[in-house]
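Give me the fold.
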Amino acid sequence: MFIVKASLVAGAFLCASPVVAQDVVYRPISPTFGGNPFNSNHVLGVANANNDTRDPRAASSNSQADIFARQLQSRLLSALSSQIVDAIFGDNPQESGIISFGGQTIEFFRSLDEVTLIIRNDETGEETRIVVPLFIEVN
């Protein structure tokens, strides 16, 4: 019995190896909390993929009547924008003008080197300014 105990103790000493450990470090994934900044696109993609809520205002039906109405509205706005561009840059360009439609007012005026468009939403009072440079040909 002594020999068995002695051989077990000797075997334990011979098989024992030094124990190695290292510190446990928490590294957050999200760059918001100090994680790697290159993870931001991945984290945003995962969040958007898991987001199953829908905007109730964006509820659109795809009935034939709705599709027709959207296409008609698109064509009318396209024709209107073509007329505005023709009035500003066409063969007989106007120096200034005001065009109102659908709750919006578009005002334009021409200076020597640019055309300024001011688009106003009559309901909210929002205003957008677009400045288009004129390229004059020099002969």
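DSSP finds three helices and four strands in the chain.
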